[in-house]
Here is the input.
Amino acid sequence: MTLHNPTTFSNWLAPHSLEWYEQLGILQQRYEYSWASSLTEPNGESIFDELVAQSIVDKKVLDVGCGHGEFTLKCSLLAKEIIGFDVTNHFIQTGLNNTRPNASFIVGNTKDGLPFQTNEFDCAYIKKGPTSAYPSLKNVVKQGGSVIGLHPGDASGKELPLLFPNLFELSTGTPILDTIKERLVSSDFSDAAIETINTIEYFETPLDILKLRCFGQQPSIYESLKEKNLYEITTIFEQHATENGLPITFSRYIVKAII
Here is the structure.
């Protein structure tokens, strides 16, 4: 049973590359997952959301990598003022179309720095956004201000290449964690810590596995894989699924830092 390798398609884009984000923005106008799944509680996402909610009350806040601004606008209910910053113009336009009086959105690339005044913000957070922002945050967040980050864990979906060989790529080591550590060292924060939160994500159907793999890609890739491999994927899925769905490791790194 050989599954097709989707990276061999000529129009495949490397996930989380600038081109991939631009394409996702054009396709969806929102950074929103297309698959159906459920998470055990608590998980890295819910823990992060609670940490952010506790830290932003009545403060001026920077949301780095804000996507289409859904979480930014939710946080605007607690913050004094909040600015969402993202590299993808189509996401920012969605945010601008739904904004609130104390929320605004700016397009920019963190690799070029952050276009804000020194000590402009009381605190900042990065929800699955670019780690390249960390070194610049020391300049724009006030001394003693908090920075909270949420990033995919290296163990996330570790079962997928074993269950669905060739469809998913096998990765080794901890490249995401290593990058975060490197960014934090170069940021020279007063204090910084990384916590790993591992829980379970249950995928509801075999098609949700395909939607995960093809997230942000051209629909033609999804349709082709569906035609070629859905039977095999369904067979594997049904062999390993529980009554809650197919259990896969859901891992997140949470960064807690003080400027």
Remarks:
- Residues 181 and 194 are 8 Å apart (CA to CA).
- The chain has a mean pLDDT of 96.
- Residues 219-240 form the longest helix (22 residues).
- Strands lie at 37-39, 60-64, 81-86, 103-107, 121-127, 141-152, 191-203, 246-258.
